[in-house]
TrEMBL record:
UniProt-recorded Gene Ontology molecular function terms: rRNA binding; structural constituent of ribosome
UniProt-listed Pfam families: Ribosomal_S4 (PF00163), S4 (PF01479)
Residues in RNA-binding S4 domain copies: 92-156
Protein name: Small ribosomal subunit protein uS4
Annotated segments matching region Disordered: 26-48
Cellular component GO terms, alphabetical: small ribosomal subunit
Subunit structure comment from the entry: Part of the 30S ribosomal subunit. Contacts protein S5. The interaction surface between S4 and S5 is involved in control of translational fidelity.
UniProt family annotation: Belongs to the universal ribosomal protein uS4 family.
Domain of life: Bacteria
Keyword Transmembrane helix: no
One Gene Ontology term from the biological process aspect of the record: translation
Organism expressing this protein natively: Chryseosolibacter histidini
Domain Small ribosomal subunit protein uS4 N-terminal stretches: 3-91
Encoding gene (name): rpsD
Length: 201
């Protein structure tokens, strides 16, 4: 499946947030990219604000439009608050969970580990980044990949990150999905209600 592969710093500067992990560029140039980036900002319309929020969520989780629309459609059919359900579905993706467990330092790196068959789900190799996990699923590093320097470096750095909806066994290099995360346990700066309003037009 295709994904955004363009300039990452440009996207972070567009939203004035380090959504793809770039902090230094924002400190040096805390204005939008392009020749008019320093100019006076015009007030955005309601639609533009909603669209920007959707675009930001897409970039954060590494989805393209068709994938995102499909996920929103699924969230709207489920019981509960649509916006929160959408974020839960995004968090339950395999590539995102590998990132949250600390196995990879970024979602892009997590996606690569999954595609290259370094990750198992319930003991079986899964190489589909969009694979949806459910409570009780076990996500771990394949036995042959446990000695990979990239994985061990990430775990040593990211290990301090803890999420209430995930459990991690460092000895076995296996994590468990305890439950889908409630909104307060999702740290991303996304106003999901704006996305719901956009798709409701």
């Amino acid at each position: 499946m295709a994904r955004y592969t363009g300039p990452k710093v440009r996207i972070s500067r567009r939203f004035n947030e380090p959504i793809l992990g770039e902090n230094k560029a924002l400190a040096k140039k805390n204005y939008a990219p392009g020749q008019h980036g320093r100019g006076k900002k015009r007030k955005q319309s309601e639609y533009a604000t909603q669209l920007a929020e959707k675009q930001k969520a897409k970039y954060i989780y590494g989805l393209l439009e068709r994938q995102f629309a499909k996920l929103f459609s699924e969230a709207s059919r489920k019981k509960g608050v649509t916006g929160e359900t959408l974020l839960q579905l995004l968090e339950a993706r395999l590539d995102n969970t590998v990132y949250r467990l600390g196995i990879a330092p970024t979602r892009r790196a997590a996606r690569q580990l999954v595609i290259h068959k370094h990750i198992q789900v319930n003991g079986e190799i899964v190489n589909i980044p969009s694979f949806t996990l459910r409570p009780g699923d076990l996500v771990g590093v394949r036995e042959r990949s446990k000695s990979l320097e990239a994985i061990n470096n990430s775990l040593s750095i990211q290990g301090a990150k803890k999420y209430n909806w995930l459990e991690w066994d460092n000895n076995e290099m296996v994590g468990k999905i305890v439950n889908l995360p409630p909104r307060q346990d999702i740290p991303e700066n996304i106003n999901e209600q704006l996305i719901v309003e956009l798709y409701s037009k």
